[in-house]
Write a structure and sequence with these properties.
- By secondary structure, this protein is of the alpha+beta class.
- It folds into 2 domains: about 15-60, no CATH class; about 70-155, 434 Repressor (Amino-terminal Domain) (Orthogonal Bundle).
- The protein has 5 helices and 5 strands; from the N terminus they run E-E-E-H-E-H-H-H-H-E.
- It has a 3-stranded antiparallel β-sheet, with no helix packed on it.
- A hairpin with a 2-residue loop joins strand 1 (about 15-20) and strand 2 (about 20-25).
- The protein is elongated and about 85 Å long.
- The model has no long low-confidence stretch (mean pLDDT about 80).
């Protein structure tokens, strides 16, 4: 009879569980599975592996409600906040870039509004310049500004 794992000829195959499946394997391949205990169709270790995988799949497949709880989003005037804080410290774009270990071109593009900084970069900039670039967004889309008030019509009108 042949080993069901490696395909070699096995004179006396041993029954083992490999990933929850009972296989008849040669003595060399028994190390890849759990010992078959006779009566049960699955071993406890492979059952726990299956349960763990099903639990991970359930978490991965479930949708997350983005409107539940408080979330933080990047402020709309992040470009001005970064530039103002940088100027207050007397830093140029090169100095800020070296402090946060990024390229100067990234800082320039961010201040020009060509790119939106990713989460990691936002945290580095907040720490280096001692500013906040994120605001809490409450459920229903209401934004809580720095003054503790919600958005008004004046927040949407562009002033010249």
């Amino acid at each position: 009879m042949r080993c069901e794992l490696c395909g070699k000829e096995a004179g006396d195959p041993k029954p083992v569980f490999v990933e929850g499946t009972k296989l008849n394997v040669c003595p060399a391949c028994t190390r890849f599975g759990d010992k078959f205990s006779g009566g049960s169709s699955t071993s406890t270790t492979s059952r726990s592996v299956i349960e763990e995988r099903l639990e991970k799949r359930k978490r991965r497949m479930s949708s997350r409600d983005v409107f539940s709880g408080d979330n933080e989003e990047l402020v709309l005037d992040y470009r001005e906040r970064i530039r103002g804080a940088r100027d207050r410290l007397g830093w140029d774009q090169d100095k800020l870039a070296s402090e946060i270990k990024e390229k100067k071109s990234i800082i320039a593009k961010m201040e020009a509004g060509d790119i939106t900084p990713p989460e990691g970069l936002v945290k580095k900039i907040e720490k280096a310049l001692n500013i906040t670039l994120k605001e809490k967004v409450l459920a229903g889309g209401e934004v809580k500004g720095s003054g503790g008030r919600g958005l008004t019509l004046g927040d949407f009108i562009k002033k010249e």
